[in-house]
User: What shape does this take?
Amino acid sequence: MEFYFEKDYLTISYDKSCHAIIAIWKIPATSEELKAGLLAHIPAMKYYNTTKIVTDTVGLGAISPDDTQWTITTWYPLAKEIGWSHWGLIIPQDVFTQMAMENPVENAVNDNVVQSYFDSIEAAKEWIKKF
Assistant: This one.
């Protein structure tokens, strides 16, 4: 794996084996960190010429309604504009956090982005290799 962006709250790398950006949220991010981290995906996707993302949100924690709205109205359109096509999402096992992650994601991206939920990065990478 080749590292692209590394902060204490997020690592973004490229995995050649599945031609995808791998984003791992390591700790709960502040609003500013969440936005900076999401925005860092865009140049990474361009640099590695990929439209696929695997995101591990287990360490991220709950996202505020304002940050969820920003993600849906600002970040998703930017990612879709450069061709974002597939998203493997590793979500927490905690039912409340899981529900908070799934509902806005499904409503916002299901029109253009093929997505699936997983309990491990390995499973998500195996799935995303198919595309």
Notes: Helices lie at 31-47, 65-81, 95-109, 121-128. The longest strand covers residues 10-15. The chain has four helices and six strands.
